[in-house]
Amino acid sequence: MKTFFVRIFDFFNTIQSKIAFYPTLFAFSGFLFALLMMYLEQQGISRKVMDLLPQLMVEDGDTALTVLSACLGGLISLMVFSFSMVMLLLSQASSNYSPRLLPGLISDKRHQLILGVYLASILYIIFTLFSIEPSEKKYTLPGVSVLLGILFTITCLVAFIYFIHNISQSIQINNILDTIFSDSRKRLKHLIDSKKEVPLSFPDTENWHKYKVGHSGYIQNIAINNILDICEREHTKIYITIPKGLFALSNAVFLKSEKKLDKEVVEQVISNISFSKGELVEDNYILAFKQITEIAVKAMSPGINDPGTAINAIDYLTELFALRMLKGDQTIITQNNKILLRIATVRFNELTYNVMSSLRTYCKHDPIMVQKILWMLNYLRNQPAVEESYHASINEEIQTMINETRKSLECERDILAISKILKA
Questions:
Q1: 211: which of 32, 255, 356, 401 fits an S-S bond (Cβ 3.0–4.6 Å)?
Q2: Mean pLDDT (the chain, rounded)
Q3: Domain boundaries, position 310
Q4: Quick one: 189 and 63 in the same domain?
């Protein structure tokens, strides 16, 4: 039963990031509301409202058809234009910044909700038109339905104004960086706050029994409590060898167990781990480092040549690295005071190397960018860390950056300026 609920949660977590999720829900709601209004019209709701507020009701069938037809045509044009702007936003973000940004932009609920309002209004007006006869008089017209159709159209116009404002903000790189940073910081803080004080020792897994996952995909979510129950039931310890958020290959070793497990037990463990074909920052903070690094690298490419954006990206990387230094390199989970589960984690030195190797390659020829990167590293080595090895990794990256810079820069004044930063 627990596995079933985990699957439902993972399914909902996946589909809500699709651009068609909320528009589909709203469209279905618009259809149901149109059917509800047809039923209420048969009960005489328009006749009652006509007696109370006659000035709000349409008194002629031809007029009602003309008004709703105009609203319908306008809303269809509005939705096509809005959808085209979303596609333009995605295309520009992919070409100017990074294709990795697309899942986050597509999952923007504000765009989905606005498109959903359009679709719901369009479907409502279409089915309302079916219930209008040109020869109908005011007491037989679905007046309330027509009035609601007009109000929905006005709502869509207001939503379109907000949509223009929102999409103009979404394409700005500062807002994109801030969104990525906020999501990853929230995820990192959750991991740091939920960490329990456990011994940092785990048995050597070299000779443990090894198992493959059988299919490929990005590790999205892990039902830790269910796997802990399996460990206790089978009297074993389990090591998940691939970090969450990374791609698991079908024939690679995925699980290690202290004791040999039956095929059914291995399938139970794997069934509590969900896989997807994409990545989201909300599930994997490592993706934020990749995205921000790619934005900086793309900005420093000859085709873009935007060092200002690269500097902004390094500022956000600095804060993320400082927060990551408060998290340990090992994820060891206990239950009933027994160490039962270890999940592989991207180690800090691996993370810094992956980020810095890309930045070094594309930024070592620019003295301003070199100064900014060294400022970041110098700041980080003075920050608190849960493990002393973090500072050693940073010092190693500083020395590597200096060596590569001396090979790339020829101006003595630039080299002197960089040396002053290190002394400071």
A1: 255
A2: 81
A3: 182-194+283-326+346-423
A4: no
Residue 107 shares a structural domain with residue 6: yes
Buried b (16+ CB within 10 A) or exposed e, 300-322: beeebebbebbbbbbebbbebbb
pTM > 0.70: yes or no: yes
Same domain, 30 and 165: yes
N-terminal to C-terminal alpha carbon distance within the chain = 60
Q: 242 in a domain, yes or no? A: no
Tell whether 300 is covered by a domain: yes
Residue 253 lies in a domain: no
Please give the Cα distance from 155 to 148 (Å, whole number).
10
Question: How confident is the model over 52-110, as pLDDT tens digits?
Answer: 776 767 777 778 888 888 999 999 998 888 878 877 777 777 777 766 676 666 667 78
* DSSP H or E segment with residue 254: strand 253-257
Do 163 and 186 fall into the same domain? no
**The two structure tokens encoding residue 321:** 């690295």
Helix (H, G, I), strand (E, B) or coil at 244: coil
Q: Are 153 and 74 in contact (CB under 8 A)?
A: yes
Q: Quick one: 189 and 94 in the same domain?
A: no
* Dist CA 150 CA 121 (whole Å): 9
Pair (188, 136) in one structural domain: no
CA contacts within 13 A on the Cβ side of 80: 6
Averaging pLDDT over each range in 71-85, 122-136, 329-343, which range is the top one? 71-85
CB count within 10 Å of CB 325 equals: 21
Q: Which of 108, 137, 171 is the last residue in one of the domains?
A: 171
Q: For the ranges 109-113, 244-248, 277-281, 408-412, which has the lowest average pLDDT?
A: 277-281
- The answer to whether residue 249 sits within a structural domain is no
**DSSP β-ladder status, 253-257 and 209-212:** antiparallel
Domain count for the chain: 2
